[in-house]
Design goal:
3 strands
Length: 142
Amino acid sequence: MTTSPDAHAIAERELCGLVSGLAQQIADHVRTRAVPLGLTAAQATALREMTGPMSMRELAERMSCEPSNATFVADKLEKQGLVERRAHPTDRRAKHLVLTPEGGDLRERLLESLAEDSPLAGLTVEQQRALKGLLEQAVLHR
């Protein structure tokens, strides 16, 4: 049994609406959790994504933004003493962003705060893995 083009379009529209709605809920959650820590949503996103030293390009990819936007955010974090730029270990033309001890502490507090009442909290770990796999498949299918 094949699905009619109309049924496929309706299903795709509904799915797009759900993905968009979830993305908005996550963005609102990050914003709400960032403000009490003295961060903007973009700064919170950058700290969340800083799992170790990384280039500005890597940070931009993880933040899903242009490198110039990531640079702007990193500049603000650096002024707050949360990150610092260090020489890249293998590319002398590049810099690595590294969390300072204060930045690491704030990142831990941020991650704890983001885990509270997360829009994804209603899913089990297995469901989150399944959703991640499906979303990766959809993104990579393009």
